[in-house]
Task: structure prediction
Amino acid sequence: MEQIIKKINIPQKQVVLPFVKSVEIAVKSIKSRFFRSLITTMSLILAISFYSYIKTNSTVISGILVSQNKIAMEKLSTQGYELPVNGGEYTTSPKERWILFLSLLVCVVGIVNTQLMAVADRFREIGTMKCLGALDRFILRLFLIEAMLQGIIGAGLGAFAGAVIALLGSFIKFGSVAIEFVNVNDIIISIVISICLGCFLSIIGVLYPALLAARMQPIEAMRGRD
Amino acid sequence: MKEVNIEELNMENLNNIVRVSRVKKNFNLGKTQVHVLKGIDLEIKTGEYISIMGPSGSGKTTLFNMIGGLDKPSSGSVFIDEIDISQLDAYELAWLRCRKIGYIFQTFNIIQVMTALENVTLPMIFAGVPDDEAHEKGMELLDIVGLKDRFQHKPFELSGGQQQRVAVARSLANDPAIILADEPTGNLDLTTGDEIIKLLKLLSKEKGVTIISATHDLKMINVSDRVVWISDGKIEKIENRDELSISLGQIGDK
Ligand SMILES: Nc1ncnc2c1ncn2[C@@H]1O[C@H](COP(=O)(O)OP(=O)(O)OP(=O)(O)O)[C@@H](O)[C@H]1O
Ligand SMILES: [Mg+2]
Result:
């Protein structure tokens, strides 16, 4: 204790949170609250896998149309798919789109809900960080990065699962023709879009709770009031 | 900036690192208002070691929050280095909290998801200190509070006293000019408490760090330059060290 604390070189007049550090803190936070993160991500995984399932399915059907395979096309008709007359391209039906929209909406509401609870749980931590010199935007950034990571992982899992289930399902229903004529590019594109969509939804869902948290006065936050 | 009033800038003011001027604080509880601080005036010189004594609920923590820029007075002002901190913008205030002041909270407020070392280095990260330097200094500080071999432990693996020591180490991270210590020895055994008191005293004597500490610990009061007695939101009396033995004697007699 006698060789009392060495001075360090502190850069002048600045308050920072480097991006790498933010990511590091966000990752740690997700890890140590794994269960909570899982719940937050779960509704996203489900919604995105549904989205990806529908999209992949429609790619498969387009492939079958291209193949002009009589048996498969008959099966499609008997299953109630509205096939385009004289060679138009197959698109998802309005009903499907409506259901998709609803499921994504429910997903966002779910995320907002779990994130509000998660943020309330963390008031103390947020307050402490602010007392130690964190700016509002540090807090906001931490939450956004967390949501982004959850989005990528959750949506990635969901998109992949949805596509695999759709492909397997149609293989079982229609046989190898379903897979042979599938446009692989379209599948990849739909997976990428699903992941982006998932990130977007995840961030939309955390925005309001994160803004609430970031704007809190340190003492209010530290008292753990909600 | 406005023109400086020469008369106001007398030598005494220049020495004040903290000046609390007519600070009142009310809390609204539903329809009623609680007057917690009822007009506090206090001047603290650079390098002073001040102890604040007062019964539970007398407003010590509330006053600390005002001095530390964590909460705003209902009226009156707090000056740090003769700058009214209510005039600071968000960035300057964050800088003040990060660099100028080290807090030891009564409730520790260690971040639960971070290890002891990460807790100590967090203020350094905010201050822009490079990783390896922050790491090295963090370990040094943990060593000083006797927790070096526990640097990887999370708060829930630490006892109350150990958490308090992490809080002490964290408060020293950015070499603050002022340390606001709210019962820093409240949860410590005698020896560890003494170590912390010695450390704070050393900091004030050798580095000119201003220590403002709320305490019930007589040993803490013994090393103080001045003791401020507050009760019911008002300053009852301020005693210099030479007057101290008298009232301490009284405490002993009671
Ligand atoms: N946010 C708040 N809302 C309402 N009342 C508050 C608030 N913060 C503090 N008080 C009240 O202010 C009074 C002083 O509280 P404070 O925490 O400053 O006391 P203290 O002197 O630190 O006590 P202790 O020694 O027990 O820590 C208490 O009566 C408390 O109920
Ligand atoms: Mg208190």
